Amino acid sequence: MWRGDYLYLIENLVVKDFKIRYRNMSLGVLWSLLNPLVMMAVYFFVFTNIFKNDNTPKFPLFLLCGIIPFNFFTVAWGTGTTSIVDNAGLIKRVPVPREVIPITTVLSCCIHLLVQVALLLTVAMISHRGANVQWLWLPVLWALEVVFVCGLALLTSALNVFIRDTRYVVESATWVLLFLVPVFYDFAMIPDQYRTIYDLNPVAATVISLRRIVYLAQPPVATTMLKLVGVSFSVFLIGLLVFHRVKPMFYEHI
Amino acid sequence: MSISDGQPAIVFHEVWKSFARHAGQLLIRDRLLQLVRSTPHEKFHALREISFAIHHGESVAVIGHNGAGKSTLLNLTTNLCRPDRGHVEVHGRIAALLDLGAGFHPDLTGAENVRTNAALLGLSRREVRDKFDEMVAFSEIGDFINEPLRTYSSGMVMRLAFSVAVCVDPDILIIDEVLGVGDMAFFAKCQERIMQFRHAGKTILCVSHSTATLKDLCNRAIWLDHGRMIDDGPLARVVDAYKSAMSPHAAYSAG
Q1: Which of B80, B123, B146 best probes binding to A when mutated, by most A CB atoms within 10 angstroms?
Q2: B32 and B87 belong to one structural domain
Q3: Which of A76, B79, B174, B250 is the most exposed place for a label (fewest CB within 10 A)?
Q4: Which domain holds residue B21?
Q5: What is this structure's pTM?
Q6: Alpha-carbon gap, residue B118 to B130, rounded angstroms
Q7: DSSP code per residue over A170-196
């Protein structure tokens, strides 16, 4: 039995990850900004010059509201999926609770996320000439996305131990989601019959709610938020249960 | 944690453990083939019906040739894996000198690695704060403690890892052939530290091929052969029996 201090361990592992990632980079945290800025520039070019779309004002801010949650989702789910296999050394040698590994991997990605959220809010301040009170929703919204991704990562990291191609399935799934999440188009453009599906997809719901909060300066739609809470916590719970059930077999299969 | 007298430190009750051969990295293709062909897994029995109890204060050596199941026995004790049948009970805090340096990363400083490693071994924030200086002092790393681990010699890395492990202050210490640590002086210091554990009435479970080390350290031995327990008793008797059983086959069991 491992009777350690979960919080201290998680904190240590997240900080360790952060230090390893940034100690050898001369630009450090700025690298976290590069990816969303480049993606924003590319989408901006494509959707203002090729697919002409002039009816979305403040288009950069609109795009960032899609890119940032989507990026976090892709990176966190991807690294979370391979986390158990990547940490085979720990699994083989330390009886540390296995759940800690995918969860800390996802939490490590939150450091990127914080930097990118700072970028988002800076752009929002410039576009709107100031902050708005709806921003108070942001911590809730991000927390729900983190819970959702932790749940998915628990599920797929466990699966990836037994079937090593899981990570490629995850990669493809995130590509599909890029088009099924309103990253570069508006929720209003989606035909009515598909809207429920979008509402139940936590990544889409995060983007939709984030746009309302930051882009439109309105409170998020209550039903969307409720569904987001429901789906995120259900996925987390399922992930935890499945993970707990199969983790004794990790040792033999890694 | 208080340890009630009379309750054994480690109990194995009719423990069986097998591993599927060719397990490990499987792709979807292999899984599908398994479904179609339904070939039974070829099993390798690492431990067969092992039962023993080790009481607090005992120090026990596990002996046997390579592949006899010694490491599996230690891994079951540290709860890294679970038995197929039977059960394993452990009462008390374990520190295993088999996970030396778990989670060490070359880009982090010695101090950062000490904290992460200690947290992985189950130390709380407070315990790490209290024991940090002791760990660093024991390792004799000195000012290098704030340098990245990649600047260390391999001996220094092992010293640091060993220092964290022994400062965990366990009730049960598990040792798996790791005493090839650093130079002679540090080796002596490690042995002295382990002897202190013994005199403090802690439980020791150890695997070593050096019978000299075992004689100083242990008073009881468990002899495993192909997963079965051949003998369990006073160290001198079991080691002698083991040696005489091995001598005719010395040519091919030497490895």
Answers
A1: B80
A2: yes
A3: B250
A4: 10-93+210-253
A5: 0.86
A6: 12
A7: HHHHHHHHHHHTTSSS-GGGS-GGGHH
**B204 in a domain, yes or no?**
no
Residue B198 lies in a domain: no
Asked if residues B202 and B172 have their Cβ atoms less than 8 Å apart, the reply is: yes
Of the candidates A5, A89, A163, which has its C-beta nearest B26's C-beta?
A163
Quick check: A75 pLDDT over 90?
Answer: yes
**What's the rounded Cα separation, in Å, for the pair A211 and A68?**
11
* CATH number, position B219: 3.40.50.300
Residue of B142, B154, B155, B82 lying closest to B111 (CA atoms): B142
Q: Name which of B249, B214, B219, B248 is nearest B232 in CA terms.
A: B219
> Which ipTM did the prediction report?
0.81
Distance CA A195, CA A204 (A): 10
Minimal CA separation from A19 to chain B, in Å:
8
SS3 call for A97: coil
The type of residue at A139 is P
Domain total for chain B? 2
Low-confidence ranges of chain B (pLDDT < 50): 1-2, 251, 253-255
CB within 8 Å of chain A, chain B residues 103-122: 103, 105, 107-108, 112, 115-116, 119-122
Residues B61, B114 within the same domain:
no
Residue B116: inside a domain: yes
Domain boundaries, chain A: 6-253
Task: For residue B196, give Cα distances in angstroms to A120, B205, B217.
Answer: 58, 15, 10
How high is the pLDDT of residue B254? 43
Taking only the tens place, the pLDDT of each residue in A127-154 is: 888 888 899 999 999 999 999 999 999 9
State the smallest CA–CA distance between residue A81 and chain B in angstroms: 15
The CA distance from A224 to A209, in Å, is 8
* Statement to judge: residues B156 and B217 lie in one domain: no
Q: Which residue has the tokens 């540290």?
A: B78
